[in-house]
Design brief:
The complex is a heterodimer. By secondary structure, chain A is mainly alpha-helical. Chain A contains two helices and no strands. Helix content of chain A is 79%, strand content 0%. In chain A, helix 1 packs antiparallel against helix 2. Classes of the chains: A mainly alpha, B mainly alpha.
């Protein structure tokens, strides 16, 4: 069973580790690129096979990490913006509520004074 | 090396990507929009360019004779094809400009519907065989064990030798074996006809058989 708070925990984890995850993605990409360049410099079976399997696998993994970090960052920003909006709107509601005269305590207008 | 435009593009993309990523790793800036854009190019766009063009360059490389003979047990085959004095069927075809540096691929590729894919899957089997069975063997030990998996298809010969040319038809054996040659029941590369394509390998096979029989 999936815990309902799990996505928030994941977002929190990725947000905390985003810089390390991005550094990891960059290093994985560099290793993948190294394998690919090796296969081009020395096109013998082993480098070519390594570049087309391990090299590209590392590249895909790095790109997924990058995409995940960017997505989580975007979600986090949206949540923060949403929380700010809620805070602002509740603050405005409180202010307007305190500025308005108490409706229940005011007496109803007298019909006798009317023409 | 730099005559292949795919290769140049792939190396250019790789160099740019490496520059961006090393810059990122040194500076480690905050995750702003500019950082995301730099990383999108460094981790995404440029490596994809390298991989795509590297695949094409790699595919071209895997078709070359030097690639095939880079496994040590294949060197006699590559050397024979490259030998201008050799009279073997493979060497005579290797001297043809159309075959040139891709002589192995031109004859051993599958020319069916899924030509490249089938050929490359076969190539992976070669890698498997080499890694597990032939890597430790010397050339002399390996030669008697190297054999073509399926009989060489006449259809491959007939891509160039159509069997329709008058000169071809003038040869008595061609005329008498026309249907068998077209049907594949008689191989063009058999010992009685034009083959074997790699005679030194045949000699190694015979020697091994004789040695086995003597034991």
């Amino acid at each position: 069973m999936i815990e309902p708070r799990a996505p928030r925990n994941v977002i929190g984890f990725v947000a905390r580790w985003s810089r390390r995850l991005l550094a990891l993605a960059a290093i994985l990409t560099l290793i993948g690129l190294g394998l690919m360049v090796w296969s081009m410099a020395q096109p013998t079976p082993m480098p070519v096979i390594l570049a087309m399997s391990v090299g590209q696998g590392l590249g895909i993994l790095a790109f997924l990490l990058f995409g995940g970090v960017v997505l989580v960052d975007q979600l986090r920003k949206q949540r923060e913006a949403g929380a700010r909006d809620v805070e602002l709107s509740s603050g405005v509601a409180r202010e307007s509520a305190s500025a308005r005269p108490p409706v229940a305590s005011s007496p109803p207008p007298s019909r006798e004074a009317l023409p | 090396m730099f005559s292949d435009p795919f290769l140049v593009f792939a190396l250019g993309c790789a160099a740019l990507s490496v520059g961006l990523l090393i810059g990122y790793l040194i500076v480690r800036p905050k995750l702003s929009s500019a950082t995301k854009l730099v990383l999108l190019f460094g981790i995404g766009v440029l490596p994809i360019g390298t991989a795509a063009n590297g695949n094409v360059a790699g595919y071209h490389a895997t078709k070359t004779r030097t690639f095939c003979s880079s496994c040590h047990v294949m060197t006699p085959f590559g050397d024979d094809v490259a030998n201008p004095h050799s009279t073997s069927l493979a060497a005579r075809h290797g001297r043809n400009e159309e075959f040139g540096g891709e002589a192995c691929y031109m004859c051993h590729a599958d020319y069916g519907m899924f030509e490249t894919v089938v050929t490359k899957i076969g190539g992976m089997r070669h890698v498997y065989e080499y890694a597990l069975h032939f890597h430790q063997l010397s050339v002399d030990e390996a030669l008697p064990k190297i054999h073509i998996r399926n009989p060489f298809p006449n259809a491959t010969c007939m891509r160039c030798h159509s069997t329709e040319a008058p000169g071809w038809r003038r040869v008595g054996d061609h005329r008498s074996l026309l249907d068998q040659a077209r049907g594949g029941s008689v191989s063009c590369a058999s010992s009685g006809c034009h083959g074997p394509a790699h005679p030194f390998a045949q000699v190694a096979h015979l020697k091994a058989e004789q040695a086995g029989g003597a034991k």
